[in-house]
Fold this sequence. Notes:
Layout: E1 55-65, E2 68-69, E3 76-81, E4 84-92, E5 99-106, E6 110-120, E7 125-136, E8 148-160, E9 166-170, E10 173-175, E11 180-187, E12 191-198, E13 203-205, E14 209-213, E15 218-226, E16 229-232, E17 237-238, E18 248-251, E19 256-259, E20 263-265, E21 267-270, E22 275-278, E23 282-284, E24 288-292, E25 299-302, E26 306-308, E27 312-319, E28 324-327, E29 332-333, E30 338-339, E31 352-357, H1 359-365, E32 372-374, H2 380-385, E33 387-388, E34 393-398, E35 404-411, H3 414-417, E36 424-426, E37 444-447, E38 454-455, E39 460-461, E40 465-470, E41 475-480, E42 493-496, H4 499-504, E43 506-508, E44 513-514, E45 527-534, E46 537-545, E47 559-560, E48 571-576, E49 579-586, E50 594-600, E51 604-614, E52 618-625, E53 630-633, E54 639-643, E55 646-658, E56 665-666, E57 674-678, E58 681-685, E59 691-696, E60 702-708, E61 713-716, E62 721-728, E63 733-740
Parallel strand pairs: 1-8, 8-15, 16-18, 17-19, 18-21, 19-22, 20-23, 21-24, 22-25, 23-26, 24-27, 46-49
Antiparallel strand pairs: 1-2, 1-5, 3-4, 3-6, 4-5, 6-7, 7-8, 8-10, 9-11, 11-14, 12-13, 12-15, 27-35, 28-34, 29-33, 30-35, 31-32, 31-34, 36-43, 37-42, 38-44, 39-43, 40-41, 45-46, 45-51, 47-49, 48-49, 48-50, 50-55, 51-54, 52-53, 52-55, 56-57, 57-58, 58-61, 59-60, 59-62, 62-63
Amino acid sequence: MRFLLVSSFMLCATTMMSQNAVVNDSIYSPxxxxxxxxxxxxxxxxxxxxxxxxxxxxxxxxxxxxxTLFQPTGxxxxxxxxxxxxxxxxxxxxxxxPLMNVTMGYNTATATNFTYKVYVPSTDQIYEVVxxxxxxxxxxxxxxxxxxxxxxxxAISTSSNDVxxxxxxxxxxxxxxxxxxxxxxxxxxxxxxxxxxxxSGVLVSRNAxxxxxxxxxxxxxxxxxxxxxxxxxxxxxxxxSLPATITDVTINSGGTLSINAPKEVYSLTVVPGAKINxxxxxxxxxxxxxxxxxxxxxxxxxxxxxxxxxxxRYVKTMNDDExxxxxxPCNVTISEITQVGGPxxxxxxxxxxINYYDGESRIANLGVTSNWKNVNVATPTHLxxxxxxxxxxxxxxxxxxxxxxxxxxVLDKALVAASESxxxxxxxxxxxxGAPVANNHKGWNLVGQPYLSRFKGANASGLxxxxxxxxxxxxxxxxxxxxxxxxxPFAAYFxxxxxxLETNGISFALAGRQLSAxxxxxxxxxxxxxxxxxxxxxxxxxLILNNDQSVEYTIGQDLEKMLGLGTSQPQVYTNLxxxxxxxxxxxxxxxxxxxxxxxxxxxxxxxxxxxATQAPELxxxxxxxxxxxxxxxxxxxxxxxxAEAGTNNTRFSITAKRISTDNNSIESATNSPIIxxxxxxxxxxxxxxxxxxxxxxxMGRLVINKQMxxxxxxxxxxxxxxxxxxxxTREKNWSLKTIIK
Length: 741
């Protein structure tokens, strides 16, 4: 007997499937009581079946794609062996839903190694199927109430757009649902990988190493192109300064690139001393690198979003003889901190180090022991999840002997994805608030600033005084926030927080973003800056002369000197009640024999001087050298002296005197000059030798310079204000501060 391929189920007429889309030829099935004739479909068939076969076997199945029932219009299921089709059929309806029914034929009663294929006309895609078929004549595979399940698998293939510029490696072939496929695009010398696309040109990835999950048939093209580079050296370069083709862009030191129209580049590198200003979107195909060396930093003003397909990272040059104070505007995973172009950093805790400052422990030990704590890694697994907290300060160091390394920190791309368009705040803790300990131990926080641009300290609300590390990170430069006109991105510094600042946090206004340093803006009045210069450097301390202040240490008004020994950086400070002050706010009457201490690493000649331009009512600032039993008015001359190496807290004291608000005069009975003011007229008399008269305004600017050849002189001072009058002769100098009302 001759058997033909049929597309009907081997069922009684009462349960027969209706054929909505029949694809076999007109057939007759003697195995069904009622004859069923159906007409061939007019749709295109990709397969030609074998005919005139002796044996057949019915199959009832459901199709699944990624675990979801698959039944697109016109779908076909075919069975294959030896590159021949042994039967196919479409989807039909049944009492239990859409089913596939194929009657496959063969020339022997049994056979193995048949495979299924699925054709979808609407997308012109052919899929292989995970399951296989063994043939047995007349033995049904699946039933209408219990069909077999067939699962699609997916063909993934790759190619290069130009094999002379790059090749593709990795697995290709057929894959089951959700299987991961690893692909690698490798450029040849002088070329670079750009992107993976489909064959309609749809971008799927910018990563050369791409893991794709099999969810459909996929043909990918790896695109390569020649490496082109462009440099920006101009301080006023704009988008139009870049080539029309996309390139690797490096902004060199002194250069500023303003993105004033949307632009796409391969990669972007902003070196120390370089700046980028985004007022329009920038698309970066590859990586973005922001760099800082030991002396300089980049600055990036993100006024509009940056889309980065690769990695955003910060690279800091570090040397093994320095501690680096750093803070990050996002969380940083420690396991992603690496050495650039080197073998690696080694083991954290032995080859390189991260410390944080514990302001809470200081409340317990009152600074008697160190409050620097190690960031510890308990296990390698712990390292993979350990992060550095955003806007919290840390110090980094390298093991002695390893030299200089470029250290890279991977950043959250959200930092550049959106524009910096709102005030940013960071939290601080008022450690010890309410505790019965001295205020100089409370509230110490090591923090940063949240922008990628430099920041003007005056625009940080809640702060008053800041302590910045200097000279290898072993001591500090401490000043008012207004004096720090250009706080670098990623820089860390100390502040003291009280309860109010803990509640509100530190707010950084957008107006404070600085692409370059701004001018000094310091409105602090009655402030005297005492300068100390040694053979190895210089340092400052400050007196705030204000009768509204208390002798007690007050957070926000006073600031303890953060000291470090064994460093070449000298240090100077006033000492009161056992506290070394960087800022000492006192009533003027308490600046009487106030101890002035100093540290210098080497013996030699040193100089003490002052800047009193912000203390217009100060008439004298007397420095007493207890070793030599001499006194010097620092308002009129500097004091030079020889000192041994080390710390000395007893040699010097200072006394301040205010100017009287009445008209002033300096008179001496015998041959000394008489200096006085009457109204707006300065008169100098009783001068018996050639002399020079210098008059300085309250800002320390020389406004009058006169030579006296006679016994007296009259000088009109038409503008009201405070003046400092100097009379210089070969034998002696005199000084007077006077007020013109």
